[in-house]
Amino acid sequence: MASLFTSRRAIIITNPTVSNLYGAVISGSLQKAGFSVHILEVPEGEKYKSLETAAELYDRLVSLGARRFEPIVALGGGVIGDLAGFVAATYMRGVPYIQIPTSLLAQVDSSVGGKVAVNHPQGKNLIGCFYQPRAVFIDLETLATLPERQLKAGLAEVIKYSFIRNDGFLSFLEKNLNLILELNRPILLEIVKRCCQIKAKVVEEDEKDLGTRAILNYGHTIGHAIEALGGYEKYLHGEAISIGMVGAAWIACELGFLKREEVERHEEILSRVGLPTKLSEFSESQVIDQMQWDKKWVSEKSRFVLLEKIGSPILYSDVPVSVIKKALRRLSLERRGE
Ligand SMILES: NC(=O)c1ccc[n+]([C@@H]2O[C@H](COP(=O)([O-])OP(=O)(O)OC[C@H]3O[C@@H](n4cnc5c(N)ncnc54)[C@H](O)[C@@H]3O)[C@@H](O)[C@H]2O)c1
Ligand SMILES: [Zn+2]
């Protein structure tokens, strides 16, 4: 950071959980590099990724006299990254910011790509913009303190990348899954690096999400519906998209793209991680009703990201509702090996 900025004051935005774990290490390191450091904590939780919290942060930045060239450091998971990035994008028409993602999901997904946002009571991420961080610093050591459920939810996004990229990444994950779950360092380094490369490449081609960036939403159409039906509490995002990816695979199977064994390959790796792969809590019609509310569905009809084969995603418009119903029925009923 000393080489990136001329200013010698940095403002860290974080939450109490992450601050207790890593606040002192990061501020100590910055102080050694000559920075004076302020830590601004916001309460823990998705519900604080809001305009109200952003407004409180603006007040605190104003009272600190924060200026245009003083960097903001987002230290935490995706909630903090999105919120601090949004504040950085808007305070004084934009101040530089750095991402230090500490959850696996944030390391492989939200910290890269420059989407920043806060939630609105009517929907997640409704208020936001595109604003790239000056740098993203990832320390895999932070994953040691991440709750296991959060780690597994992050792995759902990792597996998502492997389905949309045909470069042997899926086989690599299948082979090394136990080592990944044990947090084997060289293997983790390899997967976080590969995911960041895949995301960066997709985002470079379509930064503003007008076309091909949508492939990053594999499993997310059904996944978002499940998340919403669970009131954003029952399922973590990664858990919901785990079910959503299997659902999308069944749709692709119904349409004659994927073979049944390829759907089973989805279920196999996700359930080895311990992620859900069945629609067990909600009915098919609940999911379809909820998808019709989804903003993407409304504006783009029943558009799904589907795989023609593993590693080859396509955007498929107007999937017939009858096909979606059949696929959701399989998602509820089919058991592996039956
Ligand atoms: N901008 C994007 O492109 C993008 C992409 C995907 C998701 N998101 C957003 O990301 C958010 C979800 O992010 P998330 O899954 O990281 O959730 P999160 O930020 O809520 O973090 C999960 C939990 O882990 C804790 N935590 C984080 N790092 C830790 C560590 N090293 N040790 C111990 N505890 C730690 C957090 O305090 C929190 O309780 C959502 O708001 C979602 O909308 C954004
Ligand atoms: Zn996601």
Name the hetero compounds present: nicotinamide-adenine-dinucleotide, zinc ion
- The helix-strand sequence is EHEHEHEHEEEHHHHHHHHEEH
Mean pLDDT: 94
Which structural class best describes the helix and strand composition?
A: alpha/beta
The largest sheet is: 5 strands, parallel
So what's the overall shape? globular
Approximately what portion of the residues adopt beta-strand conformation? 5-15%
| Strand numbers in spatial order across the main sheet | 2-1-3-4-7
Helix content: 40-55%
- Determine the N-to-C terminus distance: 55 Å
User: How many strands appear in the DSSP assignment?
Assistant: 9
Q: Specify the number of helices.
A: 13
Q: Over the alpha carbons, how many angstroms does the gyration radius reach?
A: 20 Å
| Uncertain spans | none
Notes on the protein architecture:
The protein is α/β, with parallel strands linked by helices and 338 residues long. Helix content is 51%, strand content 14%. It contains 13 helices and 9 strands. The protein has a 5-stranded parallel β-sheet with strand order 2-1-3-4-7, sandwiched between helices. The protein has a two-stranded antiparallel sheet with strand order 5-6. Strands 8-9 form a two-stranded antiparallel sheet. Helix 6 crosses helix 7. The protein is globular. It starts with 8 loop residues before the first strand and ends in a 5-residue tail after the last helix. The mean pLDDT is 94. Bound molecules: nicotinamide-adenine-dinucleotide and zinc ion. Zinc ion binds next to helix 9. The site of zinc ion (ZN) has 4 residues, from helix 9.
